[in-house]
Predict the 3D structure of the following.
Amino acid sequence: MQPLLWLLLAAQLAALCGSSALLQTPASMTAQTNQTVMLSCEAKTLPSHSRIYWLRQRQAPSANSHYEFLAFWDLTKGAVHGKEVEQEKLTVLRDSSRYTLSLQSVKPSDSGVYFCMTVGNPDLTFGKGTQLSVVDVLPTTPQPTKKTTPKKKVFRFPNLVTRKGLSCAPLIVGLLAAVVLVLLVSLGVAIHLHCLQRRARLRLLKQ
């Protein structure tokens, strides 16, 4: 590819927005060192003979951003790599309208934004890019803290237990019996005294 075209590409890439013609997935991902990373670019609306280029931007987009040509897929040649690209580490695969960039044994230096692109006449069509971050240790997802709901205090009233005491019925019956007995004795004594008084009167009358 002519250097002039790549200069044009570098000048326009920062200003162009991603096209829906090239769908890149995922939008961003974090990988651990020495893992294999798969980046996808789907081109459903483009002709089957279109060349799909893969570019990498190592730093944040700016006027001085540097874009690296990694590889492109050619219908007859297959994967064509850039001059300074390790072919054993980077592979481009095609499955129908889906183009996949495979990165083997990634390192933190592989971090950046990866774009897929196709060259039209005269337009350049870009995907929206995939932000790749390569770290030595994957960040751990903090576990959501469970909110402990305070337990409601339940006020329990003490059970009112009726103490079983001595039954009053026998006592009352005993008292009534004693009263009746006293009355009977009193009545008997009164009758006896009345009889004695009557006899004494009769004796006085006979004399």
Remarks:
- The CA atoms of residues 5 and 19 lie 20 Å apart.
